[in-house]
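pipeline/complex-builder :: batch 7 item 3
reading input block
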Amino acid sequence: AQKVTQAQTEISVVEKEDVTLDCVYETRDTTYYLFWYKQPPSGELVFLIRRNSFDEQNEISGRYSWNFQKSTSSFNFTITASQVVDSAVYFCALSDILQTGFQKLVFGTGTRLLVSP
Amino acid sequence: NAGVTQTPKFRVLKTGQSMTLLCAQDMNHEYMYWYRQDPGMGLRLIHYSVGEGTTAKGEVPDGYNVSRLKKQNFLLGLESAAPSQTSVYFCASSMTSGGRDIQYFGAGTRLSVL
């Protein structure tokens, strides 16, 4: 079965530190999608990135970067020079194809990041 | 610029009471979803819809019913609330299948069942 493991329950850093959030997944599929979502204190989930299994290029967006490694089934997320506004819960998610053919998401349990000034 | 709107934002129920959570999206999305978020468990899919007039069960459908009479609205009903249904409920929508497409989430409804 599809599974996403975010082993880090909570991480605390001081502003300007770099921080990496780990995501390890298990899948039976050869084609799949991985996502990261951010849940700030206000509560809504905000999309950050989507990666399909054929695209192993790392991606950088401002202070955010993602490292996708199929060999280790990991899709890690790094925030460079963290800021207080980065404080949130971050979820990694993996696509899962049901018997009906519908694709849903399987979410990890989330990592709470606390950035102190 | 509304996106996905959920009402109400907070609700307290007594065991056995019923209620309906409303989700509305203005992005003309085909797919809509209801999730529940519980501490330490991430988000779990309750029900989903692949288009107007269709609904299907997700991972944890027991105790909930849904309806999608209009494309833009997806309603989640609790017929007889139980304390185990205390949770934060999220609605989401996507243009195509949610496993490969970006899902857009509402702000959530915090429900307490006493």
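note: The two ends of chain A are 41 Å apart (CA to CA).
queue -> next item
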